[in-house]
Design a protein that fits this description.
This protein is α+β, with helices and mostly antiparallel strands and 199 residues long. The protein has 7 helices and 6 strands.
Length: 199
């Protein structure tokens, strides 16, 4: 890690589960982790829209051991999920017995899902989410995002940025599926500049 000021988190993954992987990143030569503390975890989850400030208000004003333990569990899961994505990017997962899928299922089984009807864009929609009664429940929202990615995304379009040191992942939702970079601002412009210097 570095003592340099940390930039805002990167949300370039086109899916919250990939943005979760990108909550630790080395887009250039500096490694940043947006989940270094329990409060960092809460800030990142709000920014990722996995929770609202109202959802986590009870967890905010404390540096409780429970929040620290939740962060440790989530960071450990992030690294196992990263290895899973690295091994399956480009290939649709089909093995329900894979240890990471079994872990996700076990996490989801711990939770209590709630449903409610709300107004959105001029119509009523049914929303479902896991209730957050304690910091340990935060991983439920992350595991749910991971489960949605695994079951709904086309893994042929899950990619790691082609930047030489970049660790960011994304789901290529571009029309022609030719996206190569996490973003033009971070890695694409550097690649263009390097190619120009070679000419």
């Amino acid at each position: 890690m570095t003592d340099a000021p940390r930039p805002a988190p990167f949300f370039v993954g086109e899916h919250p589960a990939l943005d979760f992987l990108n909550s630790v990143a080395q887009p250039r030569s500096v490694l940043y982790d947006w989940l270094e503390t329990g409060q960092d975890l809460l800030d990142w989850m709000v920014a990722a829209q996995l929770v609202t400030d109202k959802d986590i208000a009870a967890f905010r004003n404390t540096d409780s051991p429970a929040l620290d333990a939740a962060r440790v569990e989530i960071v450990a899961f992030r690294e196992r999920f990263r290895a899973f994505i690295a091994s399956t990017a480009g290939v649709q997962p089909t093995d329900a017995a894979h240890p990471v899928i079994k872990e996700i299922n076990a996490i989801l089984a711990r939770g209590v899902r709630t449903q409610h009807i709300k107004a959105a864009e001029g119509r009523l929609t049914l929303t479902e989410q896991f209730a957050l009664k304690a910091p340990a429940d935060l991983i439920l929202r992350i595991a749910s995002a991971a489960a949605h990615l695994i079951t709904q995304a086309d893994f042929h379009h899950v990619r790691n940025c082609e930047g030489p040191t970049c660790t960011l992942y994304f789901l290529d939702v571009s029309k022609n599926h030719k996206r190569r970079w996490c973003s033009m601002e971070v890695c694409g412009n550097r690649a263009k500049a390097a190619a120009y210097r070679k000419r």
